[in-house]
Write a structure and sequence with these properties.
Blueprint: H1 4-15, E1 20-22, H2 24-35, H3 44-48, H4 53-65, E2 69-71, H5 73-83, H6 88-102, E3 106-107, H7 112-116, H8 121-135, E4 140-143, H9 146-154, E5 159-161, H10 162-174
Parallel strand pairs: 1-2, 1-4, 2-3, 4-5
Helix pairs in contact: 2-4, 2-5, 2-6
Length: 175
């Protein structure tokens, strides 16, 4: 049986040049962390999900490793909306950075009318259903959403659950 480390290493290697799609919460950690890494520990949405500076470091390493980072308009909209928790005086600088960071992504689009017609739409809604439809046999998905990762895996779509990646990163640095 393959170890978790071997499984994740294989996926990372296989998709390095194809690309990785990073789900909303992880992308929010990255954007807020690039704005001010000290905010990772205090930003309400990020704190409620128990993310840390170490998580930001792992996400940044993923960004540096992959040739392509894939996103969708729906993911970016969610990140933008969740970023509105910043104080008003911070938003101007943050959204200037946001605009620069968005230019680093390959943004792909699945029409909402097609996404809404999918069998699983009523369980996964617009953003996650769009991810499921977009990535089939094309991209690796990195998510902290257990429901989404379960659906991806049961559909034969490659994904990495973020906590598994953190476990492997911890084992690598502590071993």
């Amino acid at each position: 049986m393959k170890s978790l480390d071997d499984y994740i290493s294989g996926l990372l290697s296989r998709y390095k040049s194809k690309g990785i799609l990073i789900d909303t919460n992880l992308l929010l950690v990255y954007f807020i962390g690039m704005y001010d890494s000290r905010r990772i520990e205090s930003y309400k949405r990020i704190k409620s999900k128990a993310f840390s500076i170490k998580d930001l470091e792992v996400i940044s390493a993923i960004f540096n490793y992959f040739d392509k980072i894939i996103t969708t308009p729906n993911i970016l909209t969610e990140v933008s909306n969740l970023s509105n928790q910043l104080d008003e005086d911070e938003r101007l600088i943050y959204y200037l950075l946001f605009a620069k960071l968005v230019s680093l992504f390959d943004e792909e689009y699945v029409p909402s009318s097609r996404v809404c017609s999918l069998d699983h739409f009523n369980r996964f809604y617009l953003t996650d259903s769009g991810i499921i439809e977009l990535v089939k046999d094309k991209y690796l998905v990195l998510t902290d959403d257990f429901k989404l990762s379960g659906k991806l895996r049961s559909s034969g779509i490659d994904c990495i659950q973020f906590r598994d990646l953190i476990t492997v990163a911890w084992l690598t640095t502590s071993g």
